[in-house]
From TrEMBL:
Molecular function via GO: dioxygenase activity
Keywords, sorted A to Z: Dioxygenase, Oxidoreductase
Pfam families (UniProt xref): VanA_C
Keyword RNA-binding attributed: no
Annotated TM spans: none
Domain Vanillate O-demethylase oxygenase-like C-terminal catalytic stretches: 93-268
Protein name: Aromatic ring-hydroxylating dioxygenase subunit alpha
Organism: Cypionkella sinensis
């Protein structure tokens, strides 16, 4: 049985601009077959038990299989004048949806998985940064993260030390704020919205809100998909497939502070779907 805390969350199920009439997009959510389609100017998400609650935000359709416990998390930058909102399609990954989020939070893999783009040897050290579970918003944040990157963004002209802030806004959605090469007074915003198909299979919807007036849309999408496809091979070979919430199952390092906080936060909320719990 899936816990109410899981059923009552919002999950991405489609790009809003791509939804067509019935049968629309046939897909899955938490093991349930659903269809996402348009009818009389509305977008509907229909499962075997009827229509699901729906909201539209950040270029995507979001559905709740249960009774929504709260509104969808805010990303104010999505409404900021001058930003380009980029929907980057979807990537299917054979891993726990929680594993996909945790990988997004990992800094240490940049030089080894995204070589000469998001990282490079010998710049492999992850400096000290701060992590907290913010009680007011019920989110995990990592701040004051700095890392040398040969190409921090598609628009970057050369290597820079990039500052990051990571935000776990929901159990299967995370947003990062990073140095904007085109506007030093602002952050580039990149999100991953994860659709849990099953406990060991998910679809990841990358999304961006950027200050970039020159790079062609196709190049922005290709760059972000390239990054995530590099991650996919790593994610699909992780063992166990479910995310262990027992801190003794995998040995963390200083670079894993965000992952530790994320796992602690999930455990505290009782979100077990896609997780490997503490052995009895």
């Amino acid at each position: 049985m899936i816990a109410e805390a899981v059923l009552n969350e919002w999950y991405p199920v489609a790009m809003a601009a791509m939804v067509g009439p019935w049968p629309g997009r046939a897909t899955m959510l938490l093991g349930q077959d659903i269809n996402v389609f348009s009818e009389d100017g509305r977008i509907i998400v229909r499962g075997a038990g009827g229509d699901l609650a729906v909201t539209l935000a950040y270029g995507h359709v979001w559905a709740c299989p249960g009774t929504p416990a709260h509104d969808l998390f805010p990303v104010p930058e999505a409404a900021q004048p001058g930003r380009r909102l980029v929907d980057c399609g979807v990537v299917r990954v054979k891993c726990s949806p929680l594993r996909a989020v945790e990988n997004f939070l990992d800094i240490a893999h940049f030089p080894f998985v995204h070589t000469d783009v998001l990282g490079a040897e010998p710049h492999t050290e992850v400096g000290r940064y701060e992590v907290q579970i913010r009680e007011d918003s019920d989110e995990v944040w990592a701040t004051k993260v700095h890392f040398y990157q040969p190409q921090a963004a598609k628009s970057a002209a050369g290597g820079i030390v990039t500052e990051y802030m990571y935000r776990v806004a929901a159990s299967t959605s995370a947003v990062l704020y990073k140095t904007c090469p085109n506007n030093p007074d602002e952050w580039d915003v990149i999100g991953i919205f994860v659709q849990p198909l099953t406990e060991e299979l998910c679809e990841v919807w990358p999304w961006m809100a950027l200050f970039d007036d020159t790079t062609p849309q196709a190049d922005l999408i290709q760059f972000q998909q390239m990054i995530f496809l590099q991650d996919r091979s790593i994610l699909e070979n992780q063992i166990p497939r479910l995310l262990p919430l027992d801190p003794g199952k995998e040995i963390p390092t200083q670079a894993d502070l965000t992952s530790i906080a994320y796992r602690r936060w999930l455990k505290r909320k009782g979100l077990t779907y896609g997780a490997q719990m503490v052995a009895a």
